[in-house]
Amino acid sequence: EFVGLCLLSLDVLLSAEVSGLPGGDRLDCVKASDQCLKEQSCSTKYRTLRQCVAGKESNFSRATGLEAKDECKSAMEALKQKSLYNCRCKRGMKKEKNCLRIYWSMYQSLQGNDLLEDSPYEPVNSRLSDIFRLAPIVSVEPVLSKGNNCLDAAKACNLNDTCKRFRSAYITPCTSSTSNEICNKRKCHKALRLFFDKVPPKHSYGMLFCSCRDVACTERRRQTIVPVCSYEDREKPNCLNLQESCKKNYICRSRLADFFTNCQPESRSVSSCLKENYADCLLAYSGLIGTVMTPNYIDSNSLSVAPWCDCSNSGNDIDECLKFLNFFQDNTCLKNAIQAFGNGTDVNVWQPILPVQTTTATTTTASRLKNTGSETTNNEIPTHNDSPACANLQVRE
């Protein structure tokens, strides 16, 4: 049975973790590292791997390159049997940066394609309907709404102590003073990360993904993350250069990998998302805000977003650069997720009500699609749920 689990897709393994299946319990990387260092065999292999990643020539010289590669491979194979290999981090955790440093020391030299890096964060597997149930600012009949939803979201934030406190905390460092045209971007980004890490999604999402029908509303939505300071700069860097800059920072690289993982488009899926989960995509997107990769809406006429970069001066890397930029600008998964939140709709999954059983976590995406109906109400963007247990919650409302 354990061998079978190992052969399942990553999507199934992540579901298994949440459902508590055997093998699904993962330590955070800080605890896993401490545990490994107390065990001699694990500690020796871990230190070897870290030297491989760092490329210390004192230990692995060019003369013994082949031998060094074998030793590195041997160390990784040995660590695959340890909890350190499957460790993950939680966004906003107390020792997040240290946790991510440990994670990337395991993986940063082992993943080739930047767009396919696995997320170092523990999956949340939440649903938008959970947020909608608690958010009074989302209109029940969005089509009939004539107000400014983004203004309503800002007012709702001010009525919530946590939201108001963290919003006030980022406004000051993100605003240029009259004597200085340039704000403190580092402090601004840190405050913004705290805002999106600490404020409940029903409030932070309300300000970031509010639906709009006029320019006044869309401009307020664009200004939510104070683009003059946190987003724009005097010159636009090349997107690949910005990506390299991001990868040098553990938090930025992790948030970007999380975005690539959870907002990966898939044209054959019902929702246009490979992971079939709008909530996880929006969480990953919001996690980018407050990093050098901070994205924003391109204009007030669409839901297209982009980081502050372009593909000029890309030379022979133009295709790679455009692929990276288009993952933001033309991402149907992200656009559908934003629209779903703005419309106040989540996904209805027409499945029979089943008891909560851990075995449901092993259902593959293909078989879920086969058993899922496409019926939706008029305002809904069709998708489906990752777990029948979640669907049950919605059916019972």
Report the sheet with the most strands, covering strand number, pairing sense and barrel closure.
Answer: 2 strands, antiparallel
- Total number of β-strand segments? 2
Q: How many domains?
A: 2
Shape: globular
End-to-end separation = 36 Å
Structural class: mainly alpha
Annotated CATH homologous superfamily of the largest domain: GDNF binding domain
Q: Measured on Cα atoms, how large is the radius of gyration?
A: 22 Å
H/E element string?
HHHHHHHHHHHHHHHHEEHHHH
Count of DSSP H/I helices: 20
- For the record, the CATH class of the largest domain is Mainly Alpha
Q: Which strand-content bin applies to the residues?
A: under 5%
Detail the poorly predicted runs. 1-23, 56-63, 136-145, 348-397
Strand arrangement in the largest pleated sheet: 1-2
Summary?
The protein is an all-alpha fold and 397 residues long. The protein has helices spanning 2-6, 10-19, 29-37, 40-54, 65-79, 96-107, 128-134, 149-158, 161-171, 185-198, 201-208, 215-223, 227-231, 239-247, 250-262, 278-288, 318-329, 332-343, 365-371, 388-395; strands at 295-297, 305-307. It has two domains: 26-108, Orthogonal Bundle (Annexin V, domain 1); 126-136 and 147-343, GDNF binding domain (Annexin V, domain 1).
